[in-house]
Write a structure and sequence with these properties.
- Strands 1-2 form a two-stranded parallel ribbon.
- The termini are far apart.
- The chain has helices spanning about 5-30, 40, 55-65, 70-80, 85-110, 115-125, 125-160, 160-180, 185-205, 240-255, 265-290, 320-330, 335-345, 355-380, 395-405, 410-445, 450-460, 460-475, 480-505, 515-545, 550-555, 555-590, 605-625, and strands at about 210, 220-225.
- The chain is globular, with a radius of gyration of 23 Å.
- The protein has 23 helices and two strands.
- It is mainly α.
Length: about 625
Amino acid sequence: MVSVIWIVAIVLVTFSVMYVGYGRYLSQFVGLDDERETPAHEHRDGQEYVPARKSVLFGHHFSSIAGGAPIVGPITAALIWGWVPALVWIAVGNPLMGAVHDFTSLSASLRHEGKSIGYIIGEYVGERGKDMLLWFAFLLIILVVAVFSLVVGVVFTEYPQSATASVLYIALAAVFGVWLYQLGLPFSVGTVIFVAGVFGTVWVGIQYPFALVPGDYPAGTFVLLDSTPGFVPSILESANIGAWVVVTLVYGGAASVLPVWVLLQPRDYLSSFLLYTGVGGSLLAVVLGTFITTTSQPLEIEIPAWYGFMGSDLVPFAMPLFPLLFLTIACGTISGFHSLVSSGTTAKQLNRESDARLIGYGGMLAEGLLAAVALCTVALIAATPAEGGIALALPNFADGGGIILTALGVPETIGTVFMALVLVSFLLTSMDTGVRLGRYMVEEIVGTPETTVERYMADKHLNSSVIIVVAFFLVASGSWEDLWPLFGGANQLLASLALLTATVWLADWRGSKQLLSTGVPMAVMAVITVIGLLWLVFYQNVYLDLLSAEWRAGATALEVVSVTLQSLLALVLVGLATVLLRIGYGELRSTGDAPTATDGGEHAEERTSDREGADHDRVDDAENRS
């Protein structure tokens, strides 16, 4: 049998070499300069633009981009195609595509007052391109909110102990925000107290698990309601999952309208300790459990390395490796959602430009480590619940993580609940950050509201409500096998558009700019994701569902609406992306700078002066071209 230590070793070595080499090259390439004032200082307002310590901001950024996707994606892919394809895509794609995407998105935003990628591309291709990209991002946000709320419901139902721990953890984060920003109490003392409190919630959750509606739960679980309310749908044959989806969406909408100091910054900082412990502890435990200590079961890979091109029988229909592997593992390798975080919240809080290398490039590599841990956990368990299905196999992360942590002397019961809390904390973080970013998208589209309709659109409470309501209808069918690849495809397609934005930005610098670092990943992801989304629409949604008399006979009206909405959304996303890519390609051609492998030395002095004056003259150049 093959040990999971090989998964850890391959990823650690690859990522370390790339961070030292390629990460340093990219930092020099974009000209990071600590003498330049960051948007957080230039536009400091105490609401959105707030300079943050590197450790705090890394925690926020890492928690926001990590979410549950780098856990869910590798688990899903490993159970469909095997652990080898998943490992190769993570180890190779992350440093060459995903980390480049995150770093250049953050760097570009720094030079544009912390504005989003939609604003940035608008500076170069005009308002039409800006609005289209912002609408694309807004639609993706709805998918993010939908799928993450579904996974939260699945995990809370499987592990009601994690529900208790998560509620307490959110309460602690809110109190920590008051401690830091209202009372001005010591940061280090607060860190010790509240981090200890977060870990204490695991013990409380084990003692007092709770669920929302009646169902089949572990002994001692407290059920909040005596019966299921009529407005709560049964999702994946569970009313409790449906109830948690409703509660999670309401929470996400409420959290998104609060100032960042109330919940976002303190919660994400506390989340980072869960992440460090969960990821770092698991990696250490794999090493110790392999060479020194013992675990509750051997750390050997129990799933096949390769199921076949069309996938395993866990999914009842064809799932071709190309292109669906690259849609299934999104955030563990490359994710367009990260560009929204980098240019939506992180750039507004960066204290120094040099911090961008660790937070942008390094943060994505760290997420790849989380994906590797997820791959290890599912490789150990290699099991799905009796009901079957990918969605119900997701708790494998907690079960496998509990086994791994026994190498550190942690009882398996405690380790399992802790890993469930790790998963849920990142899901909640990404979900409500997503709603907040959706607000930003609409506000940038509207600009300064002049009409009654525009004032309604710009209202943060109204557009947050629209996001969570549409997300509810998308997830209501509970069709995980359709919804997750749809999210992945939209996510990867946005990544291609973000790389397009970075490429156009770099090409605008006078002289011969090397564009391969962003241009090649952009082209690869564009082709893969368009093919993948069209497969999902016409094969899975239309052919297998909407055109099937058997499916229609057993489907509810809500399920029909959900599948139809998914299909329409995918087609709109493909259409928007195709037009944007065509506009961007035309802009690249107009610069006269074709992608080249080298950066000619004869242009070095010209490039240096461009960098120094970029903040002042790039907007004027863009307006003249428009």
